[in-house]
């Protein structure tokens, strides 16, 4: 009779253990290994262990000229590939003005170029709001303007930057994510929400708030009494803000992809607000956690991502966007193919031959089926 070696016996025992673990109901403890879920007792989890849960040590980062940011806080985790970018205007529910967007774009650029960073968290200061969209005080007839005397919709550039950034961006949402702030979280790759989070678009609602600001500006800050009365009545009838705006770009198309065309129409046409658990059911967010666990859980997701291959994640992000992003999506995905090719011997042969003024020898490279 054929003898079975110790090695083979070990392999069989391991396979039976793995198989029987898969049969255990989810949540049962199933043995002495301290995983939260018995079905996680496979070789991957035995080798990699649990995702570490120790606290992050944050180090504040300046801008590229060593100057401190005014509207945002940029931090990097010590010895871990996590950058955290925080909109720091809590007194205005983290509404963004052009300066905020410019700083955000610089911080995202820095995190992109920093090869020690593998994942970026976008969040808002405090627990009341992730972001309440464009700061209406700075809205003019041609867009938003602060230190410059022309207006723009700067946030659209930031949306594109996040979409194309070759590292995952996670929105960490506590409190309101509304208007342009809601679009920002949708543009991020993942969203972890606190149980106090509120999501929604405000733009199409009645114009009282914007009208009030507009007339006050015109009247050198003096508000006509009738407008104040309308504003007060309107505030009582529906305390959510009303700004007269819409995002017919990513704010519509990405939303429709996330929640489906019918629900997207509901979100925009009715401009209702939704709780975190409603948002989770709609597919707007990846997870909802108690407010006090928000950062801990987000960090856990970051650490789990950071264990994985950065190139695989980079290519996957562009692949997941490619169909929707048309030429820009193909360019991003195609750029990744070229980037990987540059790192191969075959790619290098072409370059080396050119530099050495000789014919390249591609004969040694396989023509794969
Ligand atoms: C977020 C709220 C629901 C929070 O309500 P609450 O907790 O009761 O706080 P408040 O007392 O309302 O607010 C505290 C304080 O903050 C000020 N504030 C809040 N949000 C803004 C804002 N967006 N702009 C300016 N100021 C804001 C508020 O006035 C208070 O100030 P005090 O001095 O203390 O009184 C509620 O605050 C709320 O509903 N806010 C407005 C939300 C909203 O409608 N946002 C949408 C703005 S439009 C937008 O984001 C579009 C952005 C954009 O650039 C764009 C992109 C693509 C296409 C088009 C556009 C475009 O601009 O049109």
TrEMBL record:
The highest taxon in the source lineage is: Eukaryota
Fetch the Pfam families from UniProt.
ECH_1
Lyase listed as a keyword: yes
PANTHER family the record matches? 1,4-DIHYDROXY-2-NAPHTHOYL-COA SYNTHASE, PEROXISOMAL, NUCLEOSIDE-DIPHOSPHATE-SUGAR EPIMERASE
Family statement: Belongs to the enoyl-CoA hydratase/isomerase family.
Q: Does the keyword Transit peptide apply?
A: no
Q: Can you name one GO molecular function term for this protein?
A: 1,4-dihydroxy-2-naphthoyl-CoA synthase activity
PROSITE patterns named among the record's database cross-references: ENOYL_COA_HYDRATASE
Recorded catalytic reaction(s): these are: 2-succinylbenzoyl-CoA + H(+) = 1,4-dihydroxy-2-naphthoyl-CoA + H2O
Q: Name one GO cellular component term.
A: peroxisome
GO biological process: what's one of them? menaquinone biosynthetic process
Q: Which UniProt keywords apply?
A: Lyase
Coiled coil feature spans: none
- State the name under which the record lists this protein: Enoyl-CoA hydratase/isomerase D isoform 1
């Amino acid at each position: 009779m054929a003898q079975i070696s110790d090695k083979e016996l070990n392999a069989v025992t391991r396979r039976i253990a793995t198989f029987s673990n898969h049969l255990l109901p989810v949540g049962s403890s199933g043995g002495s290994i301290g995983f939260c879920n018995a079905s996680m007792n496979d070789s991957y989890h035995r080798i990699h262990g649990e995702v570490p849960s120790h606290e992050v040590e944050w180090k504040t980062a300046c801008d590229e000229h060593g100057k401190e940011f005014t509207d945002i806080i940029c931090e990097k985790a010590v010895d871990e590939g996590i950058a955290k970018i925080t909109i720091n205007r809590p007194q205005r529910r983290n509404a963004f003005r052009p300066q905020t967007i410019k700083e955000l774009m610089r911080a995202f650029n820095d995190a992109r170029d920093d090869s020690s960073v593998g994942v970026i968290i976008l969040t808002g200061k405090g627990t009341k709001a992730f972001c309440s969209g464009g700061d209406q005080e700075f809205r003019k007839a041609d867009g938003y303007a602060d230190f410059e005397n022309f207006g723009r919709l700067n946030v659209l550039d930031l949306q594109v930057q996040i979409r194309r950034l070759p590292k995952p961006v996670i929105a960490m949402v506590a409190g309101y994510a509304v208007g342009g702030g809601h679009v920002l979280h949708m543009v991020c790759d993942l969203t972890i929400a606190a149980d106090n989070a509120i999501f929604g678009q405000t733009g199409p609602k009645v114009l009282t708030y914007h009208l009030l600001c507009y007339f006050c500006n015109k009247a050198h800050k003096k508000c006509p009494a009738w407008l104040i009365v309308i504003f007060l009545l309107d505030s009582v009838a529906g305390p959510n803000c009303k700004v007269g705006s819409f995002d017919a770009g990513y704010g519509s198309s990405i939303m429709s992809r996330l929640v489906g065309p019918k629900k997207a129409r509901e979100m925009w046409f009715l401009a209702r607000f939704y709780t975190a658990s409603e948002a989770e059911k709609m597919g707007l967010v990846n997870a909802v956690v108690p407010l006090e666990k928000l950062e801990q859980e987000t960090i856990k997701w970051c650490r789990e991502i950071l264990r994985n291959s950065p190139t695989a994640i980079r290519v996957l992000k562009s692949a997941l966007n490619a169909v929707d992003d048309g030429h820009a999506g193909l360019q991003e995905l195609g750029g990744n193919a070229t980037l990987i090719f540059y790192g191969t011997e075959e790619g290098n042969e072409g370059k080396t031959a050119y530099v050495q003024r000789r014919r390249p020898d591609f004969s040694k490279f396989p023509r794969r089926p």
